[in-house]
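Ribonucleotide reductase large subunit domain-containing protein structure dump, as promised
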Amino acid sequence: MPFDSQEVNLFYVMIKLWNVILFSVLRRYIFETIYYHAIKASSELAAREGTYETYKGSPVSKGILQPDMWYVTPSNRWDWAVVREMISKNGVRNSLLVAPMPTASTSKIFGNNECFEPYTSNIYSLRVLRTVWEIKQRTVVEMAADRGCYIDQSQSLNIHMDKPNFAKLTSLHFYAWKKGLKTGMYYLRSCAAADAIKFTVDTAMLKEKKPSVAEVDKEVEEEYNETKMAQMVCSLTNPNDCLACGS
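C-alpha cells r here:
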C-alpha cells in the first residue's frame, strides 16, 4: 500500500479519537523520518558514486536542508548532526528526494484512496467520516504545510470545492502561498450537479392521440433509460471529467 494512503487511514483513526492536534504533530514526525532517512541514504550513496552534477553551489552543499528553508527546527527523534556531518563530507547523490505523488490509478487498483487526500466518498466502509467535500480546504492546505517542511520537491495537492469561484480560489491560493507551499493546487475538483431529471408529458398531444396509459409509461421509461445511458458514456470531447480510466 502506498504510504500516502496509510497516512489517510491513520488520520481517520485519530479523527475518531478526537485528537486532531496530536495528528498534526505526528504528521511532522512521519515526514521528518522520511526526509531524514532519504537524505542520509543519498549521502551514503554519494560516498560511493559521487554527488549529482550540479551539487556545487546548491543549498544542500552549503549545509541548508529543507527544514532550514522553512525555519523549522527538527525534533530530537533523529541525530541530524551526524547527517549534516556526512553531507559536509560526502555531499548527496540526489538533488530532490521527497514528493508525495498523485497515486490515482495505483490506489484504485489496490482499493485505496488517492494520494494523501481525505476520502472522496464513504463507499469503502460503513463508517461515518467526513468526505473531501465536507472538509474545509484551508485545513487541507494546513496539513500540506505540516508536511511541506520535509518535502524538498513538492506535493500533488488537489483542491475540492463544491462551487468554486474567483474569490474562493484567490483567497485559498494566497493562504497556501503564505503557508510556504510550492504547489498551491495540482487539480481543482468541483462537485457535479446532482439535480433530478424532470420529465413532463404534453397534455395536448395526449388529447389529440389519446394513447393508453401503458403506452405513455413505456415512452417515458424509454426516454429515461436513453438519458441515463447518455450520462454514463465517457465524453471524448471533455475527457477530464471522467476519472474511471486513464484514457
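The mean pLDDT is 77.
lmk if u need the other ones
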